[in-house]
Amino acid sequence: MEFERIIPGSEIIERLFSLFPLIDEKGKGLIRNGTTVVPVAKGCYIYDENDSPMGFLCLMEGNAKVVKTGINGRGSIVRLVKPMGLLGYRALFAEENYRSAAIALDDSLIAIVNKEAFFEVMRSNADFSLHILKLIAGELGESHLRMVTLTQKYLRGRLADAILSLADIYGFAEDGKTIPVTLSRSDLAQLSSMTTSNAIRTFSSFISEGFVANVNKRIAVLDLEGLHKVSELG
C-alpha cells in the first residue's frame, strides 16, 4: 500500500518509546530516524492480504480491525487493535506477505518503523527482544481463547464473548456502560463468526433481555453479569 508519509513529531516518538523500554540511546536514535507516520482514513486499508510487510507497525491513534478472508469471500475479524497496539508483526518476523488485512475503524495514524532499524535494535538488545516476544505471546494466548469460543460455543455465547472482548479491549466511556468504539453489525458478525442476519437477530434478543442497548451506534452494556452467564453457558 502507498501512503502520504509524514515525519513523526517528538511527541509521537516518545509515545512509541513507551512501547519499547530498555532501549539505549543508540537504539532510540535508530528508531527515531527509521520511523515515519502515515494517516489512514476510516474504512481504508492499512495493509491488504498478500502485501509485503512495510516494517514494524504500531497504531498510534484510532482503532483498527484485522480481517481474514475465508470461503466464498466471507471475512472474519481475527482481532481488534486499539491505540498503541501492534499490527502485521507475524508476516514481518516470518518474512512472508500478509495473510490478513488491516482496516482502520476510525481516522488513524500508523507509525512504521523501518524493518532494518527495528531488527538491528533487536539483535543488539536481548531485553528489548524479550519484551517484544512477551507482547506477541500475550496476543497469541488471546487468539487461543478466541479459537475455543468460535469452535465450541453457540451463537449467543459467541456474541456475548465478542461484546465482553470489546469491553476488555476498550473499556467503558464515562457513563461506565458504553464501549467507546463504533462497529457495524457486519463487523460484529465477523467478530462473532456468524452471518450478519444472525448477529442482528441475536443482538436484538440481547437488547430485549436487557443485557445491552444501542447508544449512538455503540454498544452499552447494561447487565455485565448476565453477559458473563450467557458466555459460560456457551
Describe the 3D structure.
The protein has helices at 10-19, 25-33, 89-94, 115-124, 126-152, 155-170, 185-192, 196-208, 224-233; strands at 35-40, 45-47, 56-61, 64-69, 75-81, 85-87, 101-104, 108-113, 212-215, 218-221. With 234 residues, the protein is an alpha+beta fold. A 4-stranded antiparallel β-sheet has the order 1-8-3-6. Strands 2-7-4-5 form a 4-stranded antiparallel β-sheet. A two-stranded antiparallel sheet has the order 9-10. α6 packs across α7, α6 crosses α9 (224-233) and α7 packs across α8. It is elongated, with a radius of gyration of 19 Å.
Query: What is the tally of beta strands?
Result: 10
* Radius of gyration of CA atoms, rounded to a whole number: 19 Å
Helix amount, in percent? 40-55%
Distance between the termini: 40 Å
Shape: elongated
Count every helix, treating DSSP H or I runs of 4 or more residues as helices: 9
Look at the structure and give the mean pLDDT. Answer: 87
Summarize the helix and strand pattern as letters.
HHEEEEEEHEEHHHHHEEH
User: What composes the largest sheet?
Assistant: 4 strands, antiparallel
Q: By helix and strand content, what is the structural category?
A: alpha+beta
Low-confidence stretches: none
Report the sheet-strand fraction.
Answer: 15-25%
Biggest β-sheet: strands ordered side by side in the sheet:
1-8-3-6
What is the structure about, briefly put?
With 234 residues, this protein is of the alpha+beta class. Helices cover 47% and strands 21% of the residues. The mean pLDDT is 87.
